[in-house]
Amino acid sequence: MFTKKDTVKAILRNSELNLKEMGSAFAPSNIALCKYWGKRDRELNLPINSSLSVSLADLGTATEIKLSDNHFDEVFLNNERVSPESRFYRRVIDFVDLIRPSNDLNLKILTFNSIPTAAGLASSASGFAALTMALNDFFGFKLSNEDMSVLARMGSGSASRSIYNGFVKWNKGSNENGLDSYAELIPTVWDELRIGIVEVTAEEKKVDSRNGMNQTVETSHLYESWPKQAADDLDKIEYAIREKDFELLGKTAEQNACSMHATMLSGFPPLIYWLPETVATIHKIHQLRSEGLPIYFTIDAGPNVKILFEESVEEVVKNQFSGIKIIKPF
Ligand code: DP6
């Protein structure tokens, strides 16, 4: 069986260590228009289906890495020291342990998130992407984006897509070793596209995506239909991006998200990330759409709603959804 360590060995086989004083990187968060939901290999974090996302401009994670002055690793999140007992610290250091060339290199890792951690806004995506890129910079490995995407994927699947800015497709790959499971940029620029984030809550969710998707795959009968639907949706979304067909993009993304949530709901115990405000926002979007406003939504493993629309209706959307945060991805 191929392990995470084997993957790192394969990726770093031609890289030399060229330590810098400080490594740094920024990675944007991303929202999947065609969702990744379900793993075929938990050790390597390989997905059952391919997925496609759009990045969230300056919402994301900036990471800086230096040598620690102490004989232990230090992790800071938004200028606050993170307890070595916390899950956050463990996930970061387990990942660093995979990649650092020697255990004598104790690191000080400073992470700055411009998004609420774990509120369904994919902070693990930008977090592991920024960490991978900052490690690559700090150690001077000069890795390609594809290689960094493979590494980031092992931290968190959606992180494989946060290596890039813009529309990004993560090919599920077919090799058992996972080396062909990485993301690539779709080089289309869609200037008019907007994403509005309706933040229902900034509270941490009770079941994270990882446990949520494993539970769904294990217990939902509806999950059987998911891989095929995701493959069809991905084709449609790629076509919609190429043709700048907003209606097709919006419809497909909305149906894709609802189908994913249907698989969660049909597992046991049923997984319901939506809160009453989530449902109210969905009804409002549908009402406005029936009145002629071209807006659609997508929702990840959390209660927050992301509204998809184009520049021409930005003012109307702003007035309809108070407190909405509008992002211009391009
Ligand atoms: C619903 O990438 O957070 O946001 O690979 O276990 O870390 P792990 O899961 P994660 O799952 C993201 C799920 C999603 C859909 C998506 O972003 O594609």
Biggest pleated sheet: 7 strands, mixed
**End-to-end CA span:** 41 Å
Rg calculated over all Cα atoms: 20 Å
* Helix percentage: 25-40%
Number of strands: 13
Named once each, the bound ligands are: ligand DP6
β-sheet strand percentage: 15-25%
Alpha-beta content class? alpha+beta
The arrangement of helices and strands along the chain is HEEEEEEHEHHEEEHHHHEEHE
> What is the arithmetic mean of pLDDT?
95
Continuous helix count: 9
Low-confidence stretches: none
Structure description:
The protein is an alpha+beta fold and 330 residues long. Helix 1 runs antiparallel to helix 4, helix 3 packs across helix 4 and helix 6 runs antiparallel to helix 7. Strand 11 and strand 12 form a beta hairpin. The model has no long low-confidence stretch (mean pLDDT 95). The longest helix is centred in the last third of the chain and has 20 residues. The strands form three sheets. Strands 1, 4, 5, 6, 7, 8 and 9 form a seven-stranded mixed sheet that branches. Strands 11-12-10-13 form a four-stranded antiparallel sheet. Helices cover 37% and strands 22% of the residues. The radius of gyration is 20 Å and the shape is globular. The site of ligand DP6 has 15 residues, from helix 3 and helix 5.
